[in-house]
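Quick log. Single chain, no ligands specified.
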Amino acid sequence: MRILQVSKHFPYPARDGYTVAVTCLSKALHRLGAEVHLLSMNTTKHWVETPEKPDFYAQMDTVRVDNRITPWGALANLFSRHSYLISRFVTPEFAARLKTLLTTRHFDIIQLESVQLAPYIPLIRQFSKARVCMRAHNVEHEIWERQRRETRSFFKKIYLKSQIAAFRKTEIESLSEYDILAAITEKDLDFFRRAGFAGRGVVVPVGMDPEAYAPDWSAYDRGLSLGFIGSLDWMPNQEGIAWFLREVWPVFSQKYPDIRLEIAGRHAPPHLGKNLPRNVRLRGEVADARAFMNAHSAMIVPLFSGSGIRVKILEAMALGRTVISTPVGMEGIAAKHRKEILTAATRDEFLKELSFCATRPERILEIGRAARAFILDRFDNLELARRLLTAYEMP
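-> predicted structure:
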């Protein structure tokens, strides 16, 4: 089977949730015998120096796309019926490269990695008979709606309200254009079904390769060490860690003055590094996310908005880390509280679970081991890719 995987960010090497999701699936599809071709944007916001083609791609094409958010672009979009959150990814250069691929090669499946790529479906239908699969990493408009509710800026709230309405309209209307919809969670697929999707639906979470996530259990012998990792140009991460530092850390640090917190993530805003509380270190972007997580016995996920599945939680659990997450962060991960994960939704609940970690080292090691076993059982990369291939092969 020949698959054209179309991505809105260049996915390799994998550095964040989206790129891990894209790359892990590509590797697994290749191992199962599929011929995977990649067409990817290399955007201004997520620019990378294009590496040599990895062996799991039969071919790799990239197109530079300037998707920066500018005041002029945001203002001009007020007079458009399309959301600026989508139109930034629509360019004639990318359309031309896609057309070239469709007219010079045969594909069985066009796999679109995000609703921002839905505007290219008419072009695909014009020049290819391949079936179109939308791999929905999230219910995108829900992420933006939660972010709108959390923001303190009045003007941002007003602007986002109109943008989200247009985004939601596109997200819903596009459902009729997909032959197959691969959702990350059951909850997301249920939403799309209720919104009108009547085609073939399959739930394919982000898979983990066991051999790629080797735990360092010695971190538990060194006493409790806390870590946070996530893209810091993503507003839900910014807002979550700012809340944690403001509401939770001062109280916890006063009671446990020897415990430290390290924050990692690319594109940290300047204000985040100013006046950091005691025992908090901002590392910024780290070269090896797995090594960073392995250096800590527990990872915090104070996430209050978002959709889909949190890949960094899956990675941390695969590495045997104890994760303390909000219910929003745990969406799509059916782990049990104090068995494979710790859950907290409020300041007091975070303080309770952090104190549990600080005083029960033997228990958090048990939870870390159970977390890894849970991921290996529920999120095996090859098994999940096989599920998707089965959906592709059905007539």
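The mean pLDDT is 92.
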